[in-house]
């Protein structure tokens, strides 16, 4: 009996020793990796504090292999900040690599500081940052890959829009509001997106919306501090009047863009380039006119005519119009937007006239815009005159 007991206690001791040594082994490996990581960061002259963030730093060669050397077949598209490539990491994880244009005007420190801010933002309705790459002049952001492309791919296409029935659209709207609320109020930082639009809403495998490009407008700041406040990066059709004309931005300028986005989702029509046989209003002007005449439901996309819930769709239109009002002070905060959309019983105020009621004719010049650099995607960088 005694010998069996001592055998049991001996084997217990052995198990304890084995588990303890396994744990300490893991700890040692972890510490060694952390030291290697810190040394690597130091050798690249990156800012201190980075070691607190769990964001992998990839070297150029690894990203090149993952994207098949940035081949055309891997290219997902190009935007205002550079090209995006599909990649597969050695772990098998699929990623989207955003290779920023060389003229970002930022040193590695500034870039990393901005990336660290983005890395701190984590929400199920924001596209997750998997890592980054900073080497020589290369600046790359590595995101989770979103297999269902972006919202514009569905809602503005005659055939594909029918696959987005009303419930799915409404869920997408709610997801976007939650992501934006997080950026504006709920995260530790207050982030103004500055380029919210349908092509920046990506869709995951289950069609959940993920806001992308948040923080990129901050990263891509041009080359001088003076220009920073006067350089406006945005997209026609979504920019609020105060941002487009005076370079003033706040959470309320994002709310304006969200209003446009909401009306586009409900109507299946683009604000920019909207045409109607009877008038020259933008989609915003058209929606406001219909709402004022009690005909708001005429705005609803015919692709959802069999599936929409009238009270929800009308509520979306009214909230969209409240968000797109001309003056920032009249627009609701995102917390109110979430409340108004989620509560059927909440009474909504009547919206005032929206900003950009009438389409600017394409050839017209605007006294405020002295320099306008367009690229392929209607993204504009405007430099306002000094003294504005
Ligand atoms: N994480 C991602 N997963 C899958 N595709 C992506 C991802 N990020 C971007 N893309 C795709 O890459 C293309 C370019 O995206 P990018 O965000 O650079 O430009 P954009 O949103 O079209 O234009 P802009 O620069 O005006 O915002 C788009 O077709 C987009 O759908």
Could you walk me through the main structural features you see in this protein, from its secondary elements to its overall organization?
By secondary structure, the protein is of the alpha+beta class. It folds into two domains: about 60-145, 2-Layer Sandwich (Phosphorylase Kinase, domain 1); about 150-385, Transferase(Phosphotransferase) domain 1 (Transferase(Phosphotransferase), domain 1, Orthogonal Bundle). Helix content is about 40%, strand content about 15%. The chain has helices at about 1-45, 60-65, 110-120, 150-155, 165-185, 215-220, 225-230, 240-245, 250-265, 285-290, 310-325, 335-340, and strands at about 75-80, 80-90, 95-100, 130-135, 140-145, 200-205, 210, 230-235, 370-375, 380-385. The protein has a five-stranded antiparallel beta sheet with strand order 1-2-3-5-4, with helices on both faces. A three-stranded antiparallel beta sheet has the order 8-10-9. Strands 6-7 form a two-stranded antiparallel ribbon. Helix 9 packs antiparallel against helix 11. It starts with a helix and ends in a 5-residue tail after the last strand. Mean pLDDT is about 80; it is low at about 40-50, about 220-230 and about 360-388. It binds adenosine-5'-triphosphate (ATP). Adenosine-5'-triphosphate binds near residues 80, 84, 96, 200 and 235. InterPro entries: Kinase-like_dom_sf, Prot_kinase_dom, Protein_kinase_ATP_BS, S-locus_recpt_kinase_C, Ser-Thr/Tyr_kinase_cat_dom, Ser/Thr_kinase_AS.
